[in-house]
Amino acid sequence: MIINRYFYKARHLIGNFFAKLKQYRVITIRYHKLVQNFLSAIYLASTII
Predict the structure, then answer these.
(1) 15, 31, 47, 49: least CB-packed within 10 angstroms?
(2) Nearest CA to 35 among 23, 25, 43, 24?
(3) Distance between CA 48 and CA 42 in Å, rounded?
(4) What is the pLDDT of residues 1-49, one digit of tens each?
(5) Rounded to whole angstroms, what are the CA distances from 19 to 32, 33, 40?
(6) Number of domains observed in the structure of the chain
(7) What per-residue confidence (pLDDT) applies to 48?
(8) Is 45 exposed, middle or buried (0-12, 13-18, 19+ CB in 10 A)?
(9) Are 30 and 38 in contact (CB under 8 A)?
(10) Beta carbons within 8 Å of 22's beta carbon, 6+ residues apart
(11) Distances (CA, A) of 22 to 8, 17, 25
(12) Exposed, middle or buried: residue 41 (CB in 10 Å: 0-12, 13-18, 19+)?
């Protein structure tokens, strides 16, 4: 059961991260056409979170 608890905690943490990431409208709508700009926006939002 320890393994299940570990995976649940990791899944919960990742789910919360993506929920916070979706709050940034630029990333969810993906206005940026270039992959480099899109990744830069994700990195910026990740550092803010």
Answers:
(1) 47
(2) 43
(3) 10
(4) 567 888 898 899 888 888 887 777 666 566 556 777 777 777 877 777 7
(5) 20, 23, 18
(6) 1
(7) 75
(8) middle
(9) yes
(10) 28
(11) 21, 9, 7
(12) middle
Return the structure tokens found at 29: 């709508």
What is the reported pLDDT for 1?
59
Instruction: Give me the residue label for tokens 């550092």.
Output: 47
44: containing domain? 2-48
* Cα separation, 9 vs 25, whole angstroms: 27
**Cβ pair 26, 41 in contact under 8 A:** yes
